[in-house]
Design brief:
By secondary structure, the chain is mostly helical. The protein has helices spanning 7-14, 18-30, 33-44, 47-74, 80-101, 104-119, 135-152, 157-175, 180-185. The chain has one domain (46-185). It contains 9 helices and no strands.
Length: 192
């Protein structure tokens, strides 16, 4: 039930003393960890804290790249499925960051950074042709691009300009890889 739907309850809450409202607010916040974390981010953290969080996630992506490179060099059983699991774990970190900070520019930056890491280096081999083994990975990759574009187009024009070249590289790669047909099916742009 929304508070606006029960006007009597809304009036009763508004008529509480300041101390009672404060106590009620603190009790409610203690029951919702997500809301508490979001409020903490909004009230207590600054731009430097945001940059530190972004850099921590980028470092986790770099570590994944190093791990993948090592696995591909020494483990002949590193599969597209394992690679997708690694990407999904990092995407989860980015989702959590976006949910807690609600900072769209850093979200787009991190999502681009993750996709750039996917198409760089040895993992390109997973995108050369479509096979039974890499089908889920290819669909997941296109889904990440589609999701990124949805967020990108909601940014202001200046922020879009900042990311346009990086996004063009990813789109160009996608249209030259095994996901070309998926990109076309979803009517995703070939360039920004």
């Amino acid at each position: 039930m929304q508070i606006n739907q029960d006007l009597a309850l809304k009036r009763a809450i508004l008529s509480l003393s300041k101390e009672e409202k404060d106590q009620l607010l603190l009790n409610l916040l203690s029951k919702d960890q997500l809301l508490l974390t979001q409020l903490g981010n909004e009230l207590l953290e600054n731009e430097a804290d945001l940059c530190q969080k972004v850099n921590q996630i980028k470092e986790a992506i770099r570590e994944m790249n190093s791990h993948v490179k090592q696995c591909l060099a020494y483990d002949h059983f590193y599969t597209p499925s394992r690679f997708m699991m690694d990407i999904r774990a990092l995407s989860g970190l980015i989702n959590e960051h976006a949910l807690l900070t609600k900072h769209k520019v850093s979200e787009v930056d991190l999502r681009l950074f993750l996709l750039e890491s996917v198409i760089a280096g040895e993992t390109k081999v997973f995108f050369v042709c479509r096979t039974k083994n890499n089908e889920k990975l290819l669909r997941y990759f296109v889904g990440r691009i589609k999701s990124l574009l949805g967020i990108y187009f909601k940014l202001n024009k200046d922020a879009q300009l900042e990311f346009a070249k990086r996004l063009d590289v990813i789109l160009k790669f996608a249209y030259q890889s095994a996901v070309r047909s998926d990109m076309t099916n979803f009517n995703l742009p070939k360039h920004i």
